[in-house]
Amino acid sequence: MLKTISIAVLAGLITTGSAFAGMLNVHNPKMRFDSVAPSLTELDAYFIRNGKPVTVDLVRQVEIGVSQNKVASLLGEPIKVTRRGNKATWDYNLKFVTADDGELVCQYKVLFGNAQQVDETVWRRPQCRELMVSRN
Question: According to the UniProt entry, where is the signal peptide (predicted)?
Answer without folding.
Answer: 1-21
